[in-house]
Amino acid sequence: MDAAGLGSAxxxxxxxxxxxxxxRLASVIEELAGCDVSQLSDAGVVEAAxxxxxxxxxxxxx
Length: 62
What we know:
The protein is an all-alpha fold.
């Protein structure tokens, strides 16, 4: 975040809110990356893939 200038944002500013949200998102992505999905059912894999695709589309359209 520091490279983008968000790490030194003023508390309460839009930059600080975005930096905080990105930090939380990075933590959740790391948590997901560590999940063992090998035990998911076929339906679980399909559902997880659909959710991931929706999130990716939402992220890219803005």
